[in-house]
Amino acid sequence: MNEHPNDPLYGKTLQSIVEFLVEEYGWAELGVEIKIKCFLNNPSITSSLAFLRKTPWARQKVEELYIATMSRPRRRAS
Fold first, then answer.
1. What is the C-alpha separation between 56 and 60, in angstroms, rounded?
2. Which residue ranges make up each domain of the chain?
3. CA-CA distance, 31 to 38, in Å (whole number)?
4. d(CA 36, CA 32)
5. Burial of 60 per CB tally in 10 Å (0-12, 13-18, 19+)
6. Do the Cβ atoms of 12 and 21 come closer than 8 Å?
7. In the CATH scheme, what architecture does the domain 14-70 have?
8. What is the pTM of this model?
9. Pairwise CA distance, residues 25 & 7, whole Å
10. pLDDT band at residue 73 under the 50/70/90 scheme
11. Per-residue DSSP letters for 25-55?
12. CA distances for 5 relative to 9, 20, 51, 65, angstroms
C-alpha cells in the first residue's frame, strides 16, 4: 500500500524545489511570480532557503508554484 499517493512534494527537498523553479523561471521572473525579497534582491539558493525555512507562508507559495509548474509542460529544455 502506498502511503503517499498523489503527493507531488513527497521525496522533494526544498532545495531541489527552489533549484527547479530558478531553472524554470530565472530569478527575475520568480520574483515576479512570488514577491519576496530573497528572490528580488541579490538572490541566491542559500539565502532563499534560509528565508523559506523560517517563513511558512513563503514556503507554501513556493510549493504551490512548484506544483502548478509541474502540472504543465516544461518551458525550457533540461
1. 6
2. 14-70
3. 8
4. 9
5. exposed
6. no
7. Orthogonal Bundle (1.10)
8. 0.84
9. 23
10. confident
11. HHHHHHHHHS--HHHHSS--HHHHHHHHHH-
12. 11, 22, 29, 20
Three-point CA angle 12, 7, 63, nearest 5°: 55
Is the four-CA dihedral 30, 33, 39, 40 of positive or negative sign?
positive
Q: Which of 76, 59, 67 is nearest to 8 (CA)?
A: 67
Residue-wise pLDDT for 21-60, tens only, equals: 999 999 999 999 999 999 999 999 999 999 999 999 999 9
Pairwise CA distance, residues 72 & 67, whole Å: 9
Q: Residue 71 half-sphere exposure, CB side, CA atoms within 13 Å?
A: 10
C-alpha cell at 10: 513527497
